[in-house]
Each structure stands twice: as C-alpha cells, then as structure tokens.
Amino acid sequence: MLIKTLLVNTIIDANQAKSYQLFLGCGDGVIYVFDLKTKQLLKLFKGGHSESINSMAFTYQGQFLLSASDDKDITQWDIQTAQVVKTYPGHLRSVKCLAHHEKSPFFYSGSLDNSIRKWDIGFRMEAILTEMAEKARIEAEKAAALAKAKEEAAKKKGKKKGKKKK
To answer: pTM of this prediction?
Structure first.
C-alpha cells in the first residue's frame, strides 16, 4: 500500500496491451505503475526527471514509455526494466504535452517555449513549429532597443536642462 499522497499530473493506462497497468506521472518526477486488478504498486520509474512530469505516451512498438517534464526534457524509458533509455533535450522551458501515433517512429512535444517539436525515436530531433518563439524573441529585442533609446533620450534631455540652468 502506498503511504504518501501523490500529486498526479498525468495518467496513461496500458490496457491496449492487455496488461491492466496504470502509469501515473507525478509532481515528484517519478512514474508510479499500478496493477489495476490487484491494486498493487508494481514499479517506480525514477531518475529520469528532476521536476514534475506533465505528459506521457507509449511508443509505436509499445516497448518504451515517453515522459515530458518541467525540467525541459523528454525521457524515453524501457517499460520492462523501468530504466532510462534516452533523454531528449532541446526545449527551453517546461515540456507540457506529448503526442505519438502507434504506427509512427515519430512523436511530438509541446513546450512553454512556444515550440512544437518533432522527434524521431531513432534520436533525431527536428523543430517544426518555432515561429511563435522566433516572434517572441524579435519582440523582446525590439522592446529592449526601445527601452535603451528612451533611456538615452532621457539622459540627453537631462544634460540639456542642466546646461540651461547655468
């Protein structure tokens, strides 16, 4: 029996594989696997994330589990051993969602960095929708340049006032 209360962020079940297991991605960065028939804790997936898990998906062959986290990474786990197979870095902020089609070797991730990325289970990453992130970067640069220009104008105006008083 599990003693502590879990902050569960995402749930995925493995019923499509007829295993009757429930995978819980939690706020402590751990994935808990329960047997739905016996209600027993079967496994813990630990060490792949340092922050809260937000989303999970099974890979196209059902051999791996993918998890997305506030630590900005996606982790690929071996379902049988609960060991980390691969970490997919690349997002600049929390990864909030994952999507995968059962017949595809690709999966997609969405992040608070305003990007959606396409990943190959073969470990190749391709950013496909980063337009919003690029626009945000450009707007931030424009705002910084405008603030600097206003500051310089205010300094010049202050110097002119000082000369007029003499």
So the answer is: 0.67
